[in-house]
């Protein structure tokens, strides 16, 4: 199992809220040392590839989606969902060699999140099982938050274990009690990415209250990570 900073990065990893990747857009993500270009085609399917163009090394996550292919920003080479280069604009009459390709990675869309895995294994348990996500039911995405604190600190504050989703009832400043689902993973050496969702279909106001709660939680976790004596 691949690890970084003491935490596993093998298996399915939650990268972003599904709604943060609209059709025909591309975004960057990272699992351990593996940088990814994550993109969505016109049919709503999500794909992930290595974030490095095989031509001159440009980051593919800075590119765009054209005709359901990932196009490089620099010279416009296009790669399909299998990672094979299909178009080289400078040579419109030439079929690119089959050896010109980028590595691709498995992708899943589950519980309002986009997941991928850097080990390339697409079989076995899905994210629901690996992360003990609640079965069935709907969720309302709230936001993704990056906390400048280790995953250990964040999970300790949540009273939970790394590598699992966290379900909790939070009381907001307005007194509302909300069913929050948090999926957290380490990014880099000292930061934690938290994806926040509310269980069920909730109002916009509840989403805003949950987002306020999350900001307060972030401030507390960051103080705790520095060992501040006013961490409570
Ligand atoms: S660097 Fe990507 S097409 Fe040239």
What's the CATH H-level homologous superfamily of the largest domain? Rieske [2Fe-2S] iron-sulphur domain
The major beta sheet can be summarized as: 4 strands, antiparallel
In which range does the helix fraction lie? 10-25%
CATH class of the largest domain: Mainly Beta
Number of helices: 3
Counted up, domains total 2
> In percent, how much strand structure appears in the residues?
35-45%
Low-confidence stretches: 1-7
The CATH level-2 architecture of the largest domain is identified as 3-layer Sandwich
**Terminal Cα separation, in Å?**
35 Å
The radius of gyration is 19 Å
In sequence order, what are the helices and strands, one letter per element? EEEEEEEEEEEEEHEHEEEH
**Hetero compounds:** FE2/S2 (inorganic) cluster
In CATH terms, what is the fold-level topology of the largest domain? Rieske Iron-sulfur Protein
Task: Briefly note the structural class of the backbone.
Answer: alpha+beta
- DSSP strand tally: 17
Shape: elongated
The strand order across the widest sheet is 4-5-6-11
| Overall mean pLDDT | 89
